[in-house]
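Exercise 3.2. Students should predict the tertiary structure of the chain below and write it as structure tokens, then compare their answer with the key that follows.

Predict this chain's 3D structure.
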Amino acid sequence: MMIGVTGGKGGTGKTVVAVNLAVALARRGIRVTYLDCDVDCPSAHIVMGVKRKERRAVRSFVPTFNSKKCKKCGRCVSFCQVKALYQLPQKIPSLLEQICNGCKACVLACPFNAIAEGKKTVGWTYKAKRGGVELFCGELKPSEPLSEKVVDAVKERGMREGKGEVVVVDTSAGAHCPVVRALEGCGRVIAVTEPTLFGIHDLKVISSVLKKLRIEYEVVVNRSTISERKIKNAVMQIPYDRVMMECYVKGTPIVESFPEHPISKEFFKLAESLIARGGG
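Answer key:
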């Protein structure tokens, strides 16, 4: 069972919801694999209060040119759709490495087999654990554009090494390609929002994406008491709460530190509901 936790707007508390849901599931005796696919700004390990370990590099293809075989014909340059290759007159093509997306079109285009496979590091994956929750997270190398490759690496490692009966996937904010890639395979999604104009607007955006992906979703409203705006069909309302904020600051899930708190009870109720329905 794979459950996605996402949200169009950044800062809605998506990761706080995902972590507390994962810990609530674990405290009900369910083994949980947590995939932090917010590789541009990973924070699940901070909210969980754990240190990331076992770093592994995520590497991507970059072309390297054989000067003896290259005829300087320029076919590879013309085939590159992202314009990562350029060529000066009568010179071997040069690479703008940060633009290259690793598609290997240049290799297929070269009629002289002059392009070999090089590698560059685009990010890293990590592993950690808290109680019954195994955490796998990724981090994009600064200035690298290939978020999807790190997202794929997190999911691949987590699904290979994780022993969870339930997989919780924490996406980045927004509705762009890395979010869609992270949500692939999810049977159900929790969309986290807040009762602000920005939150409601971005909820509509991510809702439209989920409908196109044909993934069933439910809404959790965080900081529900900061506004009188009501969001329909929300399965959980999280009020602006001092205890919740203190747990967030300390890096301890509220469901673990204060299991009898009303917010914790709502997380347990949500977890039990998802278990009963099999995630989708």
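Discussion points: Residues 2-58+123-277 form a domain with the Rossmann fold fold (CATH 3.40.50.300). The chain has two domains: 2-58+123-277, 67-113.
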